[in-house]
Amino acid sequence: MAVSEVRAPNVNRVDCPSRPVLEHVTSRWGVLVLAELRDRPHRFSELRRAIGGVSEKMLAQTLQTLERDGFVDRDAKPVIPPRVDYSLTPMGREVAEQIWTLTRWVEANLDGVFAARETYDKAR
Amino acid sequence: MAVSEVRAPNVNRVDCPSRPVLEHVTSRWGVLVLAELRDRPHRFSELRRAIGGVSEKMLAQTLQTLERDGFVDRDAKPVIPPRVDYSLTPMGREVAEQIWTLTRWVEANLDGVFAARETYDKAR
DNA sequence: TCCGTACCTTACTTCAAGGTGGGTACTTAC
DNA sequence: GTAAGTACCCACCTTGAAGTAAGGTACGGA
């Protein structure tokens, strides 16, 4: 074994660097961006129109974070008017697939959640 | 077709009720709680010790939200001192499985993320 | 008698997420 | 000529999420 012990990443550790990464992909807008880019690349304003309620600021911020982490590829063409295409990297495609499954699951099981809430609320 | 059109749930809609649900399961502590409960039921303070950095307040709040949505089952035994066991409902087990896969994926791909960040940061 | 454990709740405070509105630089459509 | 689209960045301010701290209860042990 090596002299310096290399700790395996563990999200349960307060200071584990995997925490922020997980938070980026599960963030409010991160989830929706990844799910949306799953089926095809989008331009900035296309994404903005597709995802209801995102402000330009938050969309730009979210895309930057995801790009920095290596999930999103940004392709800026030096033309006027500006044209920027966002797509998933191979790594991004893997997470997006999982996120997408999760979003579809939630959509499909909404009724179950509502039923649970009714039971819960009636019990008090 | 029926007279009243029933819109299918769509996370991309601002007002779609699936949004909050998705936010609950992908919330900072929600993710970690679900992942932790995946392998076995936990008591409150067990969870608190397992998940680094949660305050009692946030853990209680997170558990309540997940219970109300029907993902977590709360079993409070009327004994002194209080004993409360938290476990996953069948619905909860389905999401937890996905969340768990995601967390493992992130842990396993941390190096890829770091590499991407280095490339990104050096480019400016 | 006071500490410690277990499972919370409430009040107070802080900090970051997010919204708003402005600016840029250029083009096409009205 | 003026408005709108494109893809942002920047500064300001509000809101809500989260942290901190303390209280509450019923007991068991020192």
TrEMBL record, chains A, B:
InterPro entries: HTH_HxlR, WH-like_DNA-bd_sf, WH_DNA-bd_sf. Keywords: DNA-binding, Transcription, Transcription regulation. PROSITE patterns: HTH_HXLR. SUPFAM superfamilies: Winged helix' DNA-binding domain. Residues 16-114 form the HTH hxlR-type domain. PANTHER family: HTH-TYPE TRANSCRIPTIONAL REGULATOR YODB, TRANSCRIPTIONAL REGULATOR, MARR FAMILY. This is Transcriptional regulator.
